[in-house]
Structures are given as structure tokens and as C-alpha cells.
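Record 1 of the preview.
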Amino acid sequence: MIAEMYKRREKLAYSLIGALILILGGYLLWNQPETSQEWLEAAILLFPLIFMVIIAGTSHHKYNKVKDISIPESTGSLLEAEHVVWKADAGNLPRLMAFEKNGAYFGMLKTEKLSWWGHPIVFFQKSILSFIPSTYSFYTQDGEKLFSFRRNGFKETKVAIFDAAGNRSGTYIQEEFKSLLHVKGEFKDEENRPVLSVKTSGTSGDFSLSDHEGHRWAHFYNGRFPHEYTELFRDVDNDIVELSNELSLKNKRLLLAVISFLFMNRSLNG
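->
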């Protein structure tokens, strides 16, 4: 799955390179520079093209490094995991892939429902998903839905969380634009009782989630990653989250939904 992820990134980069070449060619055809100053201004348009070429090249290099490595599907359940590695996948709509530390594949969080008018906007600017209604579902490596959530709101984001059967399990409410340094939120169970307060760094995304009794449910520190696994996960940013193994299945499902929402938001605005 990791090799396929890098291959998808490479193909997407080549597609964007083709589109940028057409746009640049069309611009030069209709607005052909005549002076050295105009040529210099037109040369600025080459920077996105060069950036895409670099992405395609690095993705191809990473693909060649891991293509022969045998990466199995996870034999365990995400609901029982103590560590999860989240990776943003390439695609027309945002997706997050979940892995064990050793690279075994847990499954994928997919953008499942989006208003028809949102598709063309998101294709050009994925960060707009932070402000429009959308639904996401997590599917295991066997294609089984584990949970889903639906986000709404602008100044205050409300995330309704559902189990595999579509029953409402809880709600996560996040305050937007209140602080540049921290993002605050709270999630509640199906009876609207507070379960956990959430506070994440607005700059790095770091968080440590503990309940009122001091029990730590989850922890993430940006930049920390076990060195022995960096040969497989070859990106600069590898997001690994520690999860408590002392939670009920209901609370673990709620926690995973909130964490996947946080990382989806991070990938959209990163």
C-alpha cells in the first residue's frame, strides 16, 4: 500500500505537470513576451512547474525504495491499536491512510459525501473542505466501515460521529478562529455528555488528550517518529499517534474519529 501511495503521488504530479505546461504554453501564445523584463515576469510561472517536477522525482525515488518491500495488511483491528501512523494519500478528494508502525495497513479514511458544487472547488483548493459540509468514512483493509463523521459549521465546527451501522455515537465541537496558538474543542457522547476536552497546537498540531481524571487517551508530538521505521516511511513528515489501550470500544471509536478529523484538517491546511 505504501508503494502504491507513492506511485499515485507520482502520477498525480505528472498530471499536474501536463496541465501546467498547457496553461503556460497558452499564456505565452496569447501574451508572448517581447522585452527582457516581460520574459523575467513570465519565468515566474515556471516555479509551480519546477515544484511539481521535484515532487514527481522524489515520489518516484521513494517508490523504487519500497516497491520490493513486502508490506502486509494488518491482522489486528484499528480499535485495538496502540500506535497509528497517518499518511495523506493522493487523489481528487482528500484521503488518509492508516498504518501500524511496521507498515501493516489498517485502512483508509475517505471523503464520502460532498455537495455537487463542492467538487470543482475542492479539485483546485482542497482547504475549502475546512468550511463546507462533508462526510468521511473509515474503511478497514477488508472494506468494512468502522466509523464515519459529518462536519458542518464555520466559526464553530460541529462533527457528528457515527458507528458502522450509522447510529450516532457522539459529537465533536471545535472553536474556529478563537486563537492562532491553540485550537480548542470538546467531544460528547450520544447523550450529549462531555467526554473529553481537546486542545491542539495551532502551529504544529501537537496534542495530548487526557480526561478529567488524568488518564491520557492519546498523544501526538509533531516530528517524533521511531528511527527504525523511517526506511519504510520515507517522507519528512510522518505522523504517529499513541493511543490508550484502556478505553472501551465506544470511546476508542469516538477518539479515532476525532483524531482522524484533526489529521484530515491538518492535511487540508498543511
